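Pilot study result, target chain (158 residues):
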Amino acid sequence: MIVEVKENVDTILTNHNYEKKELINIIQEIQKEYHYLPEDVLIYVADKLDISQSKIYGVSTFYENFSLDAKGKNIIKICDGTACHVRKSVPIMNAVYKELGLSDKKRTTDDMIFTVETVSCLGACGLAPVITVNENVHPKMTPESAVELIRAIKKEEF
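Predicted structure:
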């Protein structure tokens, strides 16, 4: 494990007094820091908290918000629930994939700037079709407006 990573994880563990009962909070902070749960970090946490690796793995895979796969800095969620699907969310998804060079098999850009996920419902059916970028809701999207949004984010990133 890289020294800087170890220091970041040690800080998180210290903030939670190395308490086993704080495992979910610790994992949440690790994911916030790294955008996913790196395997070597989870092994390190298991060792430091004196709990089994299988317990950490179990907690990490039980909750849907945790990810063992690396994710980009910007998480784009495209709703494909009934209201969004009927209002043409699939062409939006295809335009986003094309703009970012992604597919349903490859969901994160090589530069780790974007990850695209499809979700069953974002709970904003009246604003369909909807996407979120890092929890910011973008209503009534079209393929064109989705591409414009991605290009605007790219300009901010570079």
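One observation from the pilot: The chain has two domains: 3-62, 74-157. A full batch analysis is planned for the follow-on phase.
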